[in-house]
């Protein structure tokens, strides 16, 4: 969990979710213990997550602050000049809110693309790992079958030699 000023953000793989509820949290936690990426790639991924969290925090702060300013300026004043100034202020704040919301939408789109592409990459890595494991199992099974075949052949030769040299064979042939 990563604590923001307005809630908690949870990092789960490539996905980021935000929880406005209470609770304790601090620091950043990922899905540790994964194999595959090097330390440099993991550090780059962590840095990207921090960067995305900072963007989310900045954009949400901008939306909330601008909305607060719009509400504060929305009261009607008597002088017409002041009303036009306040209307301009409200228009400017609304424009900033739209920009921040657009930035958040772009961030969501980027996160979706990252989730899709990292999902494919991790899926491919997993498939390649499983193929390697199955190849090793196939080699082990082939060696075991070859050994069993050799043992069966040796046992059959031994049984044949005992049979052909036994006295019972001679009595059955007569």
UniProtKB/TrEMBL annotation:
UniProt key word Transcription regulation: yes
Subcellular location: Nucleus
GO MF annotation list: transcription coregulator activity
Presence of keyword Nucleus: yes
InterPro entries: Med22
Keywords from the UniProt entry: Nucleus, Transcription, Transcription regulation
Major location category of this protein: nucleus
A biological process term (GO) from this entry: regulation of transcription by RNA polymerase II
Annotated Pfam families: Med22
One Gene Ontology term, aspect cellular component: mediator complex
Database matches in PANTHER family: MEDIATOR OF RNA POLYMERASE II TRANSCRIPTION SUBUNIT 22
Name by which UniProt lists this protein: Mediator of RNA polymerase II transcription subunit 22b
Organism, as annotated: Noccaea caerulescens
């Amino acid at each position: 969990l990563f604590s923001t000023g307005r809630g908690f953000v949870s990092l789960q793989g490539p996905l980021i979710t935000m929880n406005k509820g209470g609770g304790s949290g601090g620091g950043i936690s990922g899905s540790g213990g994964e194999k595959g990426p090097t330390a440099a790639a993991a550090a780059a991924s962590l840095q990207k997550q921090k960067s995305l969290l900072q963007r989310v925090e900045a954009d949400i702060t901008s939306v909330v602050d601008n909305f607060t300013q719009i509400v504060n300026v929305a009261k009607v004043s008597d002088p017409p000049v002041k009303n036009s100034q306040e209307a301009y202020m409200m228009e400017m704040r609304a424009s900033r809110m739209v920009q921040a919301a657009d930035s958040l939408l772009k961030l969501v789109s980027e996160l979706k693309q990252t989730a899709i592409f990292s999902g494919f990459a991790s899926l491919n890595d997993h498939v390649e790992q499983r193929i390697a494991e199955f190849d090793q199992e196939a080699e082990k099974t082939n060696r075991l079958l070859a050994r069993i075949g050799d043992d069966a052949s040796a046992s059959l030769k031994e049984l044949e030699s005992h049979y052909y040299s036994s006295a019972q064979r001679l009595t059955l042939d007569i």
